[in-house]
Amino acid sequence: MRDPLAGTEFSQRAGCHGAGRPDPTEPEVGSFPDETPQDGEKVKETGTTTIGISTTDGVVIATDMRASLGGRFVSNKGVQKVEQIHPHAALTLVGSVGGAQSFIRSLRAEVNLYEARRGEEMSMQALSTLAGNFARGGPFFAINPVLGGIDDEGSHVYSIDPAGGVMEDDYTITGSGLTVAYGTLEGRYEEDMSIEEARDVAVAGVHAATERDTGSGNGVYIAEVTEDGVDIEGYQGFEGV
Predict the structure, then answer these.
(1) What pTM did the predictor assign?
(2) Which residues are catalytic?
(3) Residue 85 domain boundaries
């Protein structure tokens, strides 16, 4: 009996599976969407200033409150750009809002899974490595957050670059206002600062950045990470901080 599909385009495609073509009945491996040059450009134009300082008593993280479109239009004046992701660690939001929020949700989920499986908190070295791996391999675009936390080894502050690089330092700054903020910190930072003194220096750095960087402004959020946990407060403006 003659095959009604013989010689058709379908039969030609079906006969090619053994020649390197994928079998449509086999499951496909998922992949992250490719970043386009336009996506990267949008992220580069996103402004903010985030600062992390490590002390013997804990870690201070300070950020501004402004969300802008390309640094030219203020879209929100009260954005919380630092979030708790671990019982003793916090992370800042830098880059596209959606990418940063997704990044934080993913890290929180992994931290919770780790604690549920092992019955202990993830160390800062493990958390920073995980954050770097996610930044390098995930669909989060060019985020550049600050990670700060404490563990049995002491206080830690890391910057996570868009390529997944992880760098620990006594203090670090990311965002469009970093050049102004770094100038302030370089003149005021001291190795033996208390957490209260580090808080004052971090707020001064954010304030200086908001005076010159159009992508930063409107106030400051401050996260203090100590043995008691993570405490986050927000202030509209800089009076009384």
Answers:
(1) 0.80
(2) 48
(3) 45-236
